[in-house]
Amino acid sequence: MKQKLSPETKTSALFLTAVTLIATLGGLLFGFDMAVISGVLPFVKSQFALSAATEGWFVSSALIGCIIGVAFSGDLSDRVGRKKMLMLSAVLFLLSALGSALSSGFTLLILARMLGGMGVGVASIVAPLYISEIAPARIRGRLVTFYQLAITAGILVAYLTNAGLLNFSLHHKSSYLGTIIDLVLVKEVWRSMLGLGAIPALLFFVGLCFVPESPRWLIQNGKTDDGIAVLSKVTDYATALKDVTLIKNTQSRDIGTYREIFAPAMRKPFLIGLLLPLFSQFSGINAVIYYGPRILSDAGINISNALLSQIIFGIANFAFTLIAIWKVDKMGRRPLYIAGALGATVCLIFTGVCFYTGATTGIALVVSIILFLACFAFSIGPLKFVIASEIYPTRIRGRALGLSIMTMWVADTIVGQLTPMFLNSIGPAVTFWFFAACCFFSLLIVYKMVPETKGKSLEEVQEIWAGH
């Protein structure tokens, strides 16, 4: 007989769902901002006559903004709280979307993209951090993975809106819709592609006005009663008190400075926190997201069909992230990561073979990229956030996660800058084989270094590194 949920349990589930959905809007904006560039790039490149290096700079400018955002958000989130930093990221997203749509030249467009990058940088640290600190241990992996699902949803939304706006533009070439509408939706359609980000950014800011601060941050900063009140909304009161006791017992060992991150007990988690984000970006995912239409166009597929293929890629990325949500708290982090990384390696090798042999006009190339995205989506993509948000003590979690995500964005900047140069010089085959090698290295790192953390509280995970 199916057990009925108590009214308190239903209320807790609704509260936790609402808070998670609002926090993951930061992930949706992250994905949208990252993927929208794939549809924008051909038009901006043509309008501003970009060289390969300038094209890389246009893509990487947002990533420079990410690095700036990461540089200050980790420390500030430990000082002023997670919620305030999420609200700042929403404001940066809004300013970027409006600034990109209204920019009068390439320099202003770059500056607007950098603002959006700063928003992405802040959200990429603070959103998974916030979710991990408010989620019960038994479903923490699943809820943090929802952040990655939101990223894939943002990527898919960007692909769909890019294709829809392009289709609208092509069908109204000979129409006159008014000076501004004609400019934004027809003549320079890339403006509306970028400007649409203002809608979810505004929703994100409004939603954040109704969520509480992280309970662990409140307790660490002496606001125990407020922390208990928040924890009591996501679990029962007895469990909330138990969590408070665990947090306070570990509090005395937390120095809360960057020096602690480099202490002997933290060296292994710190190294894990650097290497997983590094190799996630060198997996080839952003080559597909940023330069997908160009890669497919070079393979003989026209721009409209290339954007359609991107939509298929986006659907695969979104759908297979659901596997991670389903299995991460049952199968565990390690088995899921190892299986996905192995699959991604094989798919990238086969993608390179397709380009090497010239078999790029058939279905094989598209299928191999879809399978790569599927493997990435249930392993390398979400689990870097899950693992990195779990392995550090609460008082330094913002700072340490900031360094982890900084590594991710530095690597992403390098990939964004080098990919068009690699495609021009060594060719797509060798480029994809290089990404395959990076995926294999990430598999080895998880196999050798990463402990299983499923079902453990954040404080129990901390005990692993303390040697208990």
Features:
transmembrane, transmembrane helix, 82% helix, 468 residues, mainly alpha, 21 helices
Question: Any chance you could write out the topology, listing elements then pairs?
Answer:
Elements: H1 7-47, H2 52-80, H3 82-102, H4 106-134, H5 140-171, H6 179-187, H7 190-195, H8 198-208, H9 215-220, H10 224-234, H11 237-251, H12 258-261, H13 267-281, H14 285-298, H15 303-327, H16 333-357, H17 363-377, H18 380-390, H19 394-425, H20 427-449, H21 458-466
Helix pairs in contact: 1-2, 1-4, 1-5, 1-8, 1-14, 2-3, 2-4, 2-19, 3-4, 3-8, 4-5, 4-19, 5-15, 5-18, 10-11, 13-18, 13-19, 13-20, 14-15, 14-19, 15-17, 16-17, 16-18, 16-20, 19-20
Describe this structure in words.
Helix 1 (7-47) packs antiparallel against helix 8 (198-208) and helix 2 packs antiparallel against helix 3 (82-102). The longest helix has 41 residues, at 7-47. The chain contains 21 helices and no strands. Helices cover 82% and strands 0% of the residues. It has helices at residues 7-47, 52-80, 82-102, 106-134, 140-171, 179-187, 190-195, 198-208, 215-220, 224-234, 237-251, 258-261, 267-281, 285-298, 303-327, 333-357, 363-377, 380-390, 394-425, 427-449, 458-466.
